[in-house]
Each structure stands twice: as C-alpha cells, then as structure tokens.
Specification:
The chain is α+β, with helices and mostly antiparallel strands. It has two domains: 9-197, Fructose-1,6-Bisphosphatase, subunit A, domain 1 (Fructose-1,6-Bisphosphatase, Chain A, domain 1); 208-346, D-Maltodextrin-Binding Protein, domain 2 (3-Layer(aba) Sandwich). The chain contains nine helices and 15 strands. The relative contact order is 0.13. Bound molecules: 2,5-anhydro-1,6-di-O-phosphono-D-mannitol and magnesium ion. 2,5-anhydro-1,6-di-O-phosphono-D-mannitol binds next to strand 5.
C-alpha cells in the first residue's frame, strides 16, 4: 500500500509550535477555532444556491457598499467562534465599523484578530470562488485588560500569523506563521483540512497579470505604460502576458501564489487610495506572499511597513512575483513628475 500522508491542519500547527519551546499552544488553539468557523462558512457557501440566503440585506457596510447575507453570516460565525477561547483581547472585521470587544464574561488573551469574513462577495450568486482573510497580531497594550484600537492599528510587519480560506471548487486553508506558507484542502467526507500544498513558493517571475482593466482610463501614466509593456511581444521575457482577473482577491492571489503572477489594485481617479483595505486584505496577503518569496508594495513603500492610522483605511497594492512587482515600481517611478500632476488632479 502506498504511504499516505495524513497531516491535518491541527497536527501541522501543533508540530510547528513544538519547534518553539517557549510557545504556550495558544496560537494553535486560536487557529483551530478559526478552522472550525471556516468549515461552517464553507458549508453555508456551498449550499448558498439552495437556500434562501442570497440577496441583499438592504444594509450598507462602513464603506457604503451593499452587504449580502452571507457576509454577515461569515462575520457572525467567526466572531462567535473566536470570542470565548481566551486567546484574543480584541477583534476587528471589515463588516464592522468599530473594534469588537471580547464579552466581559470571557477571559481575554494576548492575541488580536483582524478579518475580512467573506471577500469577493459580489461573486456569490455566480458560484465564483470567494474567501475569508485573516491576520493575527500580539497585543501591545497590557495583558489581562480588554484590547484597544491601538492593538489593531499595528504595522503588518508585526503579524504573528496570517492566512486565507478559499471557498472554491474545493475549500482550501492557506496560512503562514512566518515560517513557510502551507495549504490544506478540506476533505468534505470527514470534515478535516489535510495538508495538500507544503511550503508554497511563488515563482520569482510570471507571465500573468491581474487587474481590473476597465479602470484603464483613470490609471497613473506609469501603470498604463507597464500594462502596454506586458502586452508587447517578446519571447525572452515571456510577453505578452495573460490576464487573469476573477474579481475575488483571495482567488486571484491564490492562483498567482501557485502559478506566479502580479495582482494590482492601484490608486486611480475614482479610487484615490485604491479599493482594498490595509488591515483586512492587504496586510495579511502581503505577509503570506512575502513568506512565500514574493513582494508587495503600494508602488513606493512596502505594504507591511505602512503605519495604519484608521481601522478601515485603504491602500493601493501591487503584489505577487518579485520581478514583476519590481518592474511595475520601475515604470511608475519613471513617471514621477506625471505622478504628482496625476495625484493633484485626483483631489
Ligand atoms: P469586498 O471585500 O467587498 O468583497 O471587495 C473586495 C474585492 C476584492 O476581492 C477584489 O479583488 C476587488 O474587490 C474587485 O474589485 P473591482 O470590482 O473594482 O475590480
Ligand atoms: Mg474584502
């Protein structure tokens, strides 16, 4: 009988912590609680077409966008799965304006959880992959007290772990605790995440770009030139590149992580700070992509070094295969003067 690898997510996390004798096991428990929430959300997403859960709730989220019921389901599920474990002192979610306190009846712990409960939710009705994104920090305020906003507003560099779950043709849980990026596929028959992608490395250079090209008119001139460059023919550099854009950041980044690629959500005339949120989308994805050997910037600055000022702030992002991200930065830097004219024309 062939040797079958049977590494569950829970076992992998525990074995990772064993390498650090000072570890208390709290992070393992936190990630296990999160994986339980992911399993329930996965079930709900899979039956979304069958039950009357689709459609707008009629409410807007803090970004003024329509919120779908499944977003709120995922938000509630994660909050409820995570508030009582004793590992967290505070949480924040893309779907809630303020920080989420741990109810006073539960113990507070040393970690902070930030999450986007259901990213790409405009795709739900079409059965296109969507996902959950999360970020874990160590608290900076004193232990034993409720967590504060400042615990949430940390640079991405301080992340202890980050990950995402894609609800697609199968459900996959990808995480890093800083040492390697690993993927686990959910076996629906017995409900366990099993190691399927060990130590994922993103290719240094790719032939894929992901961007909403419909915004071309509003882009920075350097970015316009870069995209035109990608579309030119040059066998040596693998051009023209292919476009792949799902419109779910988790799905686009997951594909690019495996095959190589650059994902971009730039600033433009209509989105002066881009569209994606630093704390819930850009920081965790940057932590993962860097741990896999890739690069992530806002065009000028490393995403993980941005000092956040607000919980829901947005940032432009260029993320993926290192050489491709360096190339777009080079194109944008060449247009420095135009960039200033461009930025002043936005405001
Ligand atoms: P959401 O968090 O409200 O779902 O929005 C984020 C999504 C990303 O997943 C995706 O990359 C982006 O919005 C797509 O935006 P656009 O439709 O402007 O291309
Ligand atoms: Mg999102």
């Amino acid at each position: 009988m062939p040797q079958v690898r049977f590494m569950t997510l829970a076992r992998h996390i525990i074995e990772g912590e064993k390498k650090h004798p000072e570890a208390t096991g709290e992070l393992s428990k936190l990630l296990s609680d999160l994986s339980l929430a992911a399993k329930v959300i996965s079930l709900e997403v899979n039956k979304a077409g069958l039950v009357d859960i689709l459609g707008f709730t009629g409410d807007n989220n803090v970004h003024g966008e329509k919120v779908k019921k499944l977003d709120m389901f995922a938000h509630d599920m994660i909050t409820r799965a995570m508030d009582h474990g004793g590992h967290l002192c505070v949480m924040a979610s893309e779907e809630e304006e303020d920080i989420i306190h741990i109810p006073s009846r539960y113990k507070v712990g040393k970690y902070v959880l930030l999450f986007d409960p259901l990213d790409g939710s405009s795709n739900i009705d079409a059965n296109i992959s969507i996902g959950t994104i999360f970020s874990i920090y160590r608290r900076i305020t004193p232990d034993g007290k409720p967590g504060q906003l400042e615990d949430c507003l940390q640079q991405g560099l301080n992340q202890v772990a980050a990950g995402y779950i894609v609800y697609g043709s199968s459900t996959i849980f990808v995480y890093t605790a800083g040492e390697g990026v690993h993927g686990f596929t959910l076996d629906p028959s017995f409900g366990e995440f099993l190691l399927s992608h060990e130590n994922i490395r993103i290719p240094k250079k790719s032939t894929i770009y992901s961007i909403n090209e419909g915004n071309y008119l509003y882009w920075h001139p350097g970015l316009k030139k870069y995209i035109k460059y990608l579309q030119e023919e040059d066998a040596k550099t693998g051009r023209p590149y292919s476009t792949r854009y799902v419109g779910s950041m988790v799905a686009d980044i997951h594909r690019n992580l495996l095959y190589g690629g650059i994902f971009m959500y730039p600033a433009d005339h209509r989105h002066p700070n881009g569209k994606l949120r630093l704390m819930y989308e850009c920081n965790p994805m940057s932590f993962i992509i860097e741990a896999a050997g890739g690069r992530s910037t806002n065009g000028k600055q490393r995403i993980l070094e941005i000092q956040p000022k607000k919980l829901h702030e947005k940032t432009p992002i260029f993320i993926g295969s290192e050489e491709d991200v360096l190339k777009v930065e080079e194109f944008m830097a060449k247009e420095e003067v135009s960039n200033e004219i461009y930025l002043s024309s936005i405001t």
